[in-house]
Amino acid sequence: QVQLVESGGGLVQAGGSLRLSCAASGSIFSIYTMGWYRQAPGKQRELVAVIISGGTTTYADSVKGRFTISRDNAEKTGYLQMNSLKPEDTAVYYCSAEVVLTTRARTLHWGQGTQVTVSS
């Protein structure tokens, strides 16, 4: 019904930048929140950043000042600009979206994940 497709992950040296994208498609009336989470090997999934429909953003302390979350409502796409990357940012990054369907039901969806590896 709803698909989230992430792109933009890869291998980068410490200090470098990457931009992740999350494109939503399907029976979507609107998107309430879009968020990025990450999971490193042996660790729990953690919130990186979230943006609600009005534009309010929240960031994990570990990424404040380095990462920027944004969204294009018309394109139903979310972005995570990651600058000054550190080896500890290495993880699989997952996009999430709280979607209002055309039926007006509200559901939560996840992308398949994209690997980000930061070398020292």
Descriptive overview:
- The structure is a single chain.
- With 120 residues, the protein is mostly beta strands.
- The protein is built from no helices and 11 strands.
- The protein has strands spanning 2-7, 10-13, 18-26, 28-39, 46-52, 57-59, 67-72, 77-82, 91-101, 106-110, 114-119.
- Strands 2, 4, 5, 6, 9, 10 and 11 form a 7-stranded mixed β-sheet that branches.
- A hairpin with a 4-residue loop joins strand 9 (91-101) and strand 10 (106-110).
How many DSSP helices?
0
How much of the sequence lies in strands comes to: over 45%
Helix content: under 10%
Cα(first) to Cα(last) distance is 40 Å
Beta-strand segment tally = 11
| Helix/strand order | EEEEEEEEEEE
Largest sheet: 7 strands, mixed
* Gross geometry: elongated
Mean of all residue-level pLDDT scores = 96
Poorly predicted regions: none
Structural class: mainly beta
Rg is 14 Å
